Every structure is written in structure tokens, then in C-alpha cells.
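We close this part of the discussion by returning to an individual protein. The sequence in question and its C-alpha cells are set out directly beneath this paragraph:
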Amino acid sequence: MTHARRVCMAALAAACFAVPATALAQQGNPTAVVAMGDSAISGEAARNYEPGTDQPGNYCHRSLNALIKETDIPGIAAELDLACSGAESANLQYPGTGQNNEVSQGQKLRDLIDDYDVSMIIVEVGANDDPDFTGVVTDCVAQFVLQVPIGCRWTIGLQWSGRLARMKPKVKATLQSIRAVIRDFGDGDAPQLVLASYWSPLGAANRYSSYWSKVLNGCPIYNADQAWAKNTAVPALNTTVRTIATEEGWRFLDFSRSMNGREICAPGIGHSQEWVAGLTYDPASSCWYCFDAVRQSFHVNALGHAALGDCVREFYGRTEAQAACVRGPDNTLHAGQEQWKPWVPGAAAGRPGPRTGLRRSGPGAARLPARGGRSAPRGFREAELSGRPRPPGH
């Protein structure tokens, strides 16, 4: 061996020992994009669930049709779904709290960054914290089915801003935890960090009007409650999520209008064109009377996730810090700069008038279901309150 070759070999060996072990381990790793969060991003209602996530003890419902699986970003080798239906902010933190007999999503992220070059992490979380979207939907549906003449816009609407305020620090702590995992265990090449907001499963209008047509078509909610959810509750939630992303230095992708015109029971379309599943009963669930039997209700279906995946792919390739997913003439979603108008207390609805309850006759007449709820209200028309509900915080 010549002297020059010995010098070259020695220099190469010294360089190898000087490189941190983590960097060596990650050289040549496959690229990946990662989804973390709750049912909105796990793929609930998109069907085709990963083995082990659609059974008693684990209804994380991670779908192979979930939006992260539909991104198809050039140069990305793996699309990893860590999300789990029902997840709260604490379930995404490291070391965090496990869920459904699984470790926390934060722990899963820690484990995978040794094996993947993560290019993007997209997070959708917060709805299962203080906002309690599941409880909101349950209340809205129950009041319609039982013909309670109050409406969830009253029972929940006045609490909404307080719920969002209590959610905010929990989501912020989760984003900080995810960033810390990347900082402490990654290779120094930080991925895109994206916080996505939530869509509304129902629009402000409904193509069905009678009691049974709404029940049988999966959208048993008062029109006024739909309008409150679409025009007040979801925009308020998304304003909060957007603020969190800005304060934490994350990119923000607005999903709030992504389902516009494709919601369950939206006017002018049929069920085959909807991007959202309505009230859904799964007879194969763990028990016929459990929440698991209806947990897929009011979630984006496979068509909607495919469209969201298109939007996320576009956003990945753009440079803006924020964008909104809006349906274009080609009937899919695009990441545009247009933003929804931030919700301002008092802007979406006026103060309510007096509570008038059910009227016995005339416009707006409605009757309670027969004893035991076995028959529809005869001559049903939605009982409305005079005036409009107050916006959250008023």
C-alpha cells in the first residue's frame, strides 16, 4: 500500500468516527410524510382500515384511504398514518398518553425518525379536547330525533368560546412536544410542520325537509343548528387553530370550506356525490348499542379524503405559510391563498329573541314523537326559536 493510499484511508476513517451515529443511521433512509391526530385525519369513515384498528379494544380506524395515503407526493417513499380516532392532544405528545392499547403518537414519531427521513408532519387535533365534537354532534342529533325544541345552538353555542379557550394551550403543548421530538432525536434537517383545521360535515342548508327524510338519509339535525355549526362553530374553531399555528411557527392549512357543496344532505347533489358520511350504524361493531356502532358518523369518506390528499400535496409544494383548501371547477381541492373570513364574536349571528318553544299550529308547528319514539311527528315541521342564537361568548 502506497503512502498516499494510507493517508487517504486514515483520513476516511477519521471522518467516519467524527460523524454522529444518528446521522450515519439516517443516511439513505426512505423519505416519509406523517399524519398525526384524531378521527378527522386517521380516516374514520373512509373504510379499508389497517388490520388491528377496526376491532374491539382498538377502533383507531386508520384507513388506507386516509388523506395522508392520498398525497402521492413525488419523491416521497412512505405515507405514515399515526392518527387514531378519539385522540386528544395528550395522545400526540411525547412520551404522552397511550390509546387503544397503543403507545402515544409522540412515541411512535420518536421511534420512526430513526428509520425515515421525515419531510412533512401534518397534524389535526383539538376537537376531542374541550370542544368535544362528538358530544356536540350527539346533542344536535338527539334534540332533533326527540324533537326537543331548544337546539344545540343554544345548549352548546353559549359555551363555545370558553371551550375553545381551554383547548388552545393543550394543542400548543402538543405542537411544542412534536417539535421537541424532531429537535432532540432527528438529524437536524427539520421537516415541514403543518397544522390543519377542521371541516364541517353539514352545510348551512339541507336538501331534505321532513322528519323521516332527514332521519333515513343520515342528517337528522335542525336546519338552524346546521347553520350555527357551519357559520359559527367551525369558523370559530378554525380561527383558534390558525392562531395556534401562527404563534407556534407552524404552517397552517385551512380545511374549513373543503367540504362546501359536498356535505351530507347538501342541496343539489345525491349521496354518491357526497364527501361526508352521515349518521352511520355499523352492525359489525363490538355491540349494537355502543358508541363504536355509530362512531363513523359525520366524518369525511374516501372521496373526501382523496380530495384532501390532493390539496395537501399542492400545499407541500408551495411556499406560503398558510393556504385554504377550496374546491375548483375540476371538482377537487386546491391549496389557494384565499382565506376564510376570521370569526369575530357577534358577526355570525345576532342576539336571540325570547324562547317561544313549540307552537301548536301555524308556521313552524311541530309535535313530539309518539310515546316511546316509535312514530314520526305527524305533520312535522321544524320548530324554530324566534330570533337567532347568540354567537359564542355573548
